[in-house]
Request: fold
Amino acid sequence: QVQLVESGGGLVQPGGSLRLSCAASGLNVEDSNIAWFRQAPGKDFDEREGVLAIGKGGGEIYKKPYLEGRFTISRDNYANTVYLEMNNLKTEETADYYCVAAGGLIWAQNVKAAWWASGYWGQGTQVTVSS
Reply:
């Protein structure tokens, strides 16, 4: 049974940092395409915003240009975990953050959660950016 468990969320002040973890069981993260999405308060599944993705095998990174330099994604094959490092967080980035694993990888600047709907989603971890 495949399971993804996100952790590391919490309350952080604007400008602060967090590292989220996505621990996988039932699949190998090295053999899966893993993406992070976020869902802002009041939004639904279809409005989840793609943040970053890492491809299986060689680990090619797929990102949004406006997050360049602030958000990074990495993978620890031994821990079977994918990480999302977030720096200089902004209040508008308050959201539930989800990881998803899929056999196929579709990425675009307007990537939709629906494109990853057939993947394995975690339950999310809440990130609140507030002073």
Summary: The longest strand covers residues 18-25.
